[in-house]
Structure formats: C-alpha cells, structure tokens
Amino acid sequence: MYEKPDEGRQNEEERDQLTGILKKSTAEARITSWMRGRRGGTLFLCDVNHMKRINEQYGHQTGDECLKRVAQILSYMIRYNDILGRCGGDEFIIFMPECLDMGQAQENCRRIQERFHADGRREKDRIPLSLTVVWELRKPGNTYQNLFASVCEKLKRQKGIMDTVRAETKRKDHYITDVRRIQEELTEQIQKQEAYCQDYETFKSIYRFLERGIARSGQKVCVILLTVVDGQGKSPLPYEKDVLMEQLGEDIGITLRIGDVYTRYSSSQYLLLVIDTAQEQADRIVDRIRERFLDGRQGEDVLIHHCYELQSVRNENMMDRG
C-alpha cells in the first residue's frame, strides 16, 4: 500500500502485515540511523481515537479497515524522506527530518488532524475517524528512545485531558437528562382551559409567593372573596348549599383565566387570586361570574363579594428601622 520512491521494493518483513507501512522495529531503526548523524527533525505520534468503541460496535474486521484507511491517508500526507510506521495497535509514528522548528511542527500537527476531520465530513457512508497527534522536536543529545518516551508522555497527558472533558460532558448530559425529567414531572398536563382550583393551604402558599414577588415585578394581583347568601342575607340551608357551591366552583373555573387561582374557603365562600388585575377590574370579573351563576335560577340566592389588591410583603426588620 505504502512505498517510498527511493526505497524500491522492501522486504515484507519490514512491513506491517495489516497496513503495509513500516513496522515498528523498522521505523525505529531508520529513525535511529538518521539521528546518528546528529541531525534534527520532529517525531509525531498519532493515536486513532475511539478504536476500542469501533471494534466493539462494528467488529474487528471493520476496525482493521479503519486502520488501513488511517495508514493510507497518512502515507499521502508525508514527504519522500519522512518515515512512517505503525508502532502499536492504533498508534502511528512519523519522523519528519525537515521539520526543524515549533511553528512547522504545530502546522503539520494541525494539518494531519484537519485532514481526518475533512475526510469524515466528505465520506458520509464511512465511519468518521479522528486522530490525537502530539510531537516533539529533537534536541541535541536526544536518542530515539527518549524522544519516543517524551511523545508518549505527551499523548498520555493529552488523552487524560480529553477523558476529563468527555467525563464532564457526560456529567452535563446526565444533568440535562435530569432537567428534562424534572420538566416532564412538573409540567401540568392541562385537561381544561380553566383556572387552578387548589386546597386552601396550597392557595395560601401561592398567595405568599405572589406577595413576595410583586415588589420586584410590579404585577397587579387582586384577591376576591365570593359569598353565597339567600334573599335575607343569610347562609343557604345545608341541603341547598352543597349544590350551590359546586355550581359556583364550576362557574368560577370557567370564567377566570388559566393562570388564576381559587379555593373553597368556607361552606359558602370561595377565595380568588386574579393575576394581572387591579381592584377596579374585580367588579367586572365578579359580574361575569354572577351572571353565569344566577342564569336561569329561580331562587332568591345572592352572590356578594369583597376584594382588595395584594400588597408587597413588608420585612419586619425594615419596618422597625422605619
């Protein structure tokens, strides 16, 4: 697969059986030979990302094809006197004798990584491949062994950083899952477009929440007390009261908006929290409820009301200082 023009036909023992590029021992021997002349260069170590996952998900045969593809792409990217070899299961080394400064090394590293990124975008039907690439310039006195040890240490640190980032991303994804589950649990599945009917304790909690918030929001909230009485201003008879209050509750729910809240306060009273409503608008709201409640009724029942605007809660310490 991979052959340099000045090498001629190489002995098969010098080649990696799978990829066709130089095997580790041959590549190391050639790099060592070059370094004996006290010449410089840069050693690159390329690690194929996620090979374990590729093998597990697609099988080792597909994984082998991916390694062949990596070797082929790298062989297209090197110069005639560069040395390319496979030094491990999913690791490749490249020694570039003419790469003699940090700027060149960084550019070559970027170019290799970008080439695989572009290949993944272009070949939609292939498994996308990416490489982690580290490098080390040869310094005077460096042997191949300590140069290789240095790039291995760099790769280990780089992989550790990447693992940390992936773990953090996974944790964030986990929290996103939590948030979505919470959203599903808290979001109300509205059956009817009616106001909230709550028990009194819940109503009180909502009242106090709004009381705390209106200082900041400036929102108008009106509290209305509705009372059912008979023609003499007295509470209806017990056997009539339950029917009347059930009907009144339905009329309130239908008349109020979906964000308003009401509760049964006593045997003949309802309390209403009407959002975005000033006191002068309360009479019109009650008129609509009264009209619905008394429509077609033959009795002498009367619906009376009292209301006030909710005021911002006052901190006792602030009151004392005032």
Q: What strand line-up does the widest sheet have?
A: 1-3-4-2-5
Strand content: 15-25%
The average pLDDT score comes to 85
Residue stretches low in confidence (pLDDT < 50, at least 5 long) are 1-8, 316-322
Question: How much helix, percentage-wise, in residues?
Answer: 40-55%
User: How many DSSP H or I helices?
Assistant: 9
Taken together, the total number of domains comes to: 2
Shape: rod-shaped
Give me the count of strands. 10
Distance between the termini: 88 Å
- The appropriate CATH architecture of the largest domain is 2-Layer Sandwich
The CATH topology label of the largest domain is Alpha-Beta Plaits
CATH homologous superfamily designation of the largest domain: Reverse transcriptase/Diguanylate cyclase domain
> Sheet with the most strands?
5 strands, mixed
What structural class do you assign from the helix and strand content? alpha+beta
Question: What pattern of helices and strands is seen along the backbone?
Answer: EHEHHEEHEHEHEHEEHEH
The level-1 CATH class of the largest domain = Alpha Beta
Q: What is the alpha-carbon Rg in Å?
A: 39 Å
